[in-house]
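Many introductory courses stop at the sequence. We go one step further.
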Amino acid sequence: MRRNRMFAKVAYITLCTLALSSFCISCTEGYDEDPEFSPGVSNTQLLSPPSDSIKCTLSATGEEVTVSWPVVMGAGGYQLSAYNTDDPSNPVAIVRDKFIDACSYTMPVAEDTHYQFVIKTLGNDQYRNTEASEGSSKDFSTLTPTYMTIPSGTDLTQFFTDNPVVQADSTLDDNGNVQELAYEMELGGSYTISGPIDLSARKVTLRGWKAGHAKLTYGPDGRIWTQNGLKLKFIDFDGSQLSAKDKKACLFGLSENADDNITDHTNYKNFFIKDPIVMQSCNISNLAASIFYDNGKDYLINNFVIKDVFAQLDQQQIPFNFNKTSWLNLKMTESTFYSTTQNAITFLFEGGERPSKLGSGSNKISAWNTDIEQCTFYNLSYGQKRFIQWSRYLGQAAHTWTMKRNIFVDCARNGKATDGTDNGNITKIFEFNTYFYNGAVAETPYDDTTTLQSDPGFKDPTHGDFTVSGSDQLAARTGDPRWLPAATTQESPGEPADSIK
């Protein structure tokens, strides 16, 4: 009898557990799966989730965003559209009218891009609810949030005099560092810079818009200096008034007066700049002076990046002059540099100490890198023995030098753009580079890898059109990608949106 009572008790508990599990599953899958469940809303025209209730959460890698919103009772689902709004007047649909049977959606996103999401509540026939009359929109951006907007027509030198960059504040990022300040110029705006701007040790982004770059004209004394991370994006630089006779003349460079209190000079022999210095998606015209100059100061830059830059130079100075500065990682990619004149002047100069001598203890440096990939160079350093010149980096096995898929035409002495830069000890990774000089393939003993022995066939290089026609270069997709046919893909590039609904 006791055993029977025990069995009955176990059976009762089991049945209760199964019933509870069934109830939980019904709640998880949605009320539309359970004929006994009512949302409490019927015979109603539904509303879309309020815009301020829609959340956009960027993944830790910055490669995806999850859009989420609260449940709308009585809904039969949701309709989601996503637009690229880099050009606010011409949004491009990425996702259009997608049915979502949930309250969130995850999709990939691109760097430095504006988006708009539109969420619309759909009706539910079972409860005779009709769809919302319109969707709710939510703007989202992968750009660093704007700190200040600079009106078109502004002299940036005067602007930063009137609005000094705050060097420290109580708002720190997740890593305990002072947050980056992003100054945004207006879409298609025009600006001048009459004198030096020293951003000192605050991380700063100065940017225009992808769809309409800011136009920035330099006066004879114009330049931007920093001793911390700096990002220059979506700007068209006019350097026609900068004189090559002024050695300090440059678009941007490093501060003359580095401060021990705000630039790390305790753990490193040189002033150490941890955060990246970046020029990205910019155009440069009529520049006889340097693009970058370190002011002859002893800095150590962790990351220096040039990406997607088109530069028309009148090369009378060293475009990238690291006079006493060293770098740990220099990366130049997907860019075009050419000169309208021929001068035997080095393109990239490094005169700083080798990094292995600059750190100590836990900060000792054992390796550093120079990486130049998919760039197009024309008529630069003509007749100069060393296109790239470094002294203390010479012959160091700890230095890895990567040169991949670049095109050099009429560069350096006899086209030998990579010669004279090493005694053989540098760790080099070279592939698919083209060296062409005065109408013929150049001999380049130092690059004995898979060089392309043919004319890249530039369309009109003297007028800045480097469209590639050479079959070898097209097959290997070498040089700045902007001069190559669009890569084939299975994905649609998107379509213009008639309107945002």
